[in-house]
Amino acid sequence: MGCEVSWFAALCDDDYEFLGVPDPILQSSWEHCRTIALAAEAGGYDNLLLPSGYAMGIDAAGFAAGIAPLLRRMRLLVAVRMGEMWAPQLARQLATLDQMLGGRLTVNIISSDLPGQKLESGPRYRRTLEIMSVLRDLLDGKPVDFHGDFVDVTLDPPRLRPKSGCPPFYFGGLSEPAREVAAQAADVFLMWPDTMGGVSAVIEDMRARATRYGRELRFGYRAHVIVRSTESEARAAARRLLSRLDTAAGEQIRRRSLDTTSAGNARQRELREEANSEGYAEPQLWTGIGRARSGAGAAIVGDPDQVLAKLRAYRALGMEAFILSGYPHQAEGDLFARHVLPKLEHGPLFPR
Fold it and tell me: What is the distance between the alpha carbons of residues 45 and 71, in angstroms, rounded to a whole number?
């Protein structure tokens, strides 16, 4: 069976030759991220994640609107933070992007603190669930009569709406409130890197939760990759990536994210602590990335056959989508596209 394989557009100042060492050439900009996006389309990727940040980089929705007319085939997975925009207006924005993409929009729902605002986990996820519910109805062309703690609206849907209905919602989070939101309202549950046992346990738990709501979830895996001709070359590339990292600089990079205290980030720290002296939590799963990055903090490292085997092992557990990245993003994306992607049976998870 096939899977969806996506690459990552480094919109959030997250592109390096040496991790944690800023390089003006790789800093997020329209020109740099456009180059990554067009290379990903040429390389055969099915989708492209456009991440959302505040202090770093450029805006995901703005970039999506700019790049959409330049793409002919690839989908976009646009990250949106719940609460940054009034839900009806967000629905119009997403419907516009979907039209520009010819129906190829997918949406990465983010539940985090907003810039300059702190909200406890419970209320924050209630806000997320309310907005997701309203968004789905409006994008499906349904009128809304919703009265919650964060969204209070009675409204007919706008004229502009996706022809195929609401784009798929990709959503992740390991906390109890996050898992419950995903079980009720997500289409794809996204996970950050974990061991095979860890992945299996989360999938089992999330399937059971979704079943209680009469729903089915699909599953995606967000990780970095380092692929080289031989395993020794791949491991050397991983060591080189960290060779100029200053510990204090790495900590500063991790802290600038809006979700540094999340359960998902806590699990990434645990993985680093459980790893061996070279940073491997299990064969081919290297946790060094997390020393200078919040969020997904591990890479699949190896030769093409090893990387392929690791992805197929995750696929056997139930993963149907992979969102991959590497440093520098254009160069590593090309290596994966040439040496691994042709061996994977892949295609869009939600053909439209």
Answer: 12
- Six-digit token string for 298: 């591990």
Structural domains of the chain sorted by starting position, each given as residue range(s) with its CATH number in brackets = 4-225+303-343 (3.20.20.30)
296: pLDDT strictly greater than 70: yes
Per-residue pLDDT tens over the stretch 193-245: 999 999 999 999 999 999 999 999 999 999 999 999 999 999 999 999 999 98
Question: ∠ CA 287-291-293 to the nearest 5 degrees?
Answer: 100
Beta bridge partners of 218: 188
- Report the percent of the chain where pLDDT is more than 70: 97
In whole angstroms, how far apart are CA 49 and each of 164, 278, 290, 306? 21, 29, 19, 24
